[in-house]
Amino acid sequence: MNNLLIGLESLKITSDISEEDLWTGCIDLIQKSYVTEITVGVSRPCEEKDFREYRQIIDKNLQNIKFMLQHIIHCRNEKTIQIKPDTLIVKTFTINLLLLIGEHHEKNVWNNAESVFISKELQSEILGLHRCESISQLLMEQDNFITVLLALRPKLLKDSWKTYPAAVVCYKWILYQIEKPVLYNHIGDVLPTALIIVDDYVPENVVLGLECLYQIIQHSHLKKGLIDTGYAKVVFHTLENLSHQREAKYVILIYKCLANLLATIEHWDNTLNVFEWTRRDDILAVLLDNMEFEQNVELRRVYMLSLPQFLTNIGCAKWCERLTRILSEYCEHHTDLRTLKATLETAKTFLLMFHLRVAAHCVPLYTAFLKLHFDLAKTPVFDKEIMQNLEDCICLLYKLSPNVGYAVMNDDRMRSVITNSLQVACLGDTNFIEYSMIKYNR
């Protein structure tokens, strides 16, 4: 309370100030505290130096707004003023403050840790003012969500968004506050901005746009309207174009969006025949091309992490030969443990999904897996999950191609490669004991 009184005194707010003047003064201060337009943002990403003057005043402004809001809540609790959320002035105050909170909800080049801390305090205070449990609840009241989007729109147009980086951050924050499937109900209001941001040359902007796009796609999961309106086609085309770019920062996001979107497209496609060429095959063709010729370690890892989510139906069996070749190559030329771990996890998915076709491709897989097992046994790795996944793959391969597997496991030339524990896991205790007895009696 002492801090509040000191703060109000510094703002020259006294007990006889009118309610209207209090609201108006607070709204005016909020609007003066928005992150300023940075025109150089059109030609390059914004930097801290672009906000040098703004950073000198923002913390004090946020603190003063907090004092004024606390005073309003105190007066409401003392019944000296009556707050009606549906009045224009209260709604204007709420929308403006939500925009400012969104600009400072996380650390960025235009603020500091103190700004973020005060922003979170303001978030708590505004929820207390409206007696709401969450920002999501507050946005759903009084059409606040649409009003906030309309207030942001002038800053998020194709020709303006790069000069208002804080508005872009605020837009993303708002999308992530909304519970499913509300964004789908307003897809015409939220999707254009995400598509504008994604269509940029700065990787960080593309990542942010993809994060927004993924949120919208999730809200639209299995919604037929996404197909009927043509939005699915537009988004798919955008993502498909991005999939040709070699940028590790957003590979995983691109393919997450595509996998989620394909699930909706395929669900409503009554003519779909998975054994013919489909949109899923279009994506797999690009992804496998990227994987097969890529030497960059980080790109190899993110491509491999992205692959399993597309191996979801038997129609993908048309890619078995190529998948076998890629998995074998990634096992034979392993230089990064994270990539190797992803490779073995993908291999397990492959073996389980296409178990009826594995026998036709077992020889190169056995060669790659057993050679890798031998290499790792000579140079132990600290990640036990890698060896466990590898042994799981070998055992799965044995069960899916038992004739070849039994010959491999009982070949004297393989004794230096196959450990006893691996042989027991594949053949089973009984077979291994019988095999050992025969060897001993010889």
Structure in words:
One of its GO terms (cellular component) is nucleus. Belongs to the TTI2 family. This is TELO2-interacting protein 2. The structure is a single chain. The chain is mostly helical and 442 residues long. Among the domains are: 1-36 and 48-179, no CATH class; 308-442. 68% of the residues lie in helices and 0% in strands. It is built from 23 helices and no strands. It has helices spanning 2-10, 19-32, 52-77, 88-103, 113-130, 135-140, 144-152, 165-177, 182-185, 187-198, 203-219, 224-228, 231-242, 248-267, 279-293, 297-306, 320-332, 337-353, 362-378, 384-400, 402-409, 420-427, 429-441. α18 (337-353) packs parallel to α20. The longest helix is centred in the first third of the chain and has 26 residues, at 52-77. Residues 429-442 have low confidence and may be disordered.
Please describe the topology of this protein.
Elements lengths: L1 H9 L8 H14 L19 H26 L10 H16 L9 H18 L4 H6 L3 H9 L12 H13 L4 H4 L1 H12 L4 H17 L4 H5 L2 H12 L5 H20 L11 H15 L3 H10 L13 H13 L4 H17 L8 H17 L5 H17 L1 H8 L10 H8 L1 H13 L1
Helix pairs in contact: 1-3, 2-3, 2-4, 3-5, 4-5, 4-7, 4-8, 8-11, 10-11, 11-14, 13-14, 14-16, 15-16, 16-18, 17-18, 17-19, 18-20, 19-20, 20-21, 20-22, 22-23
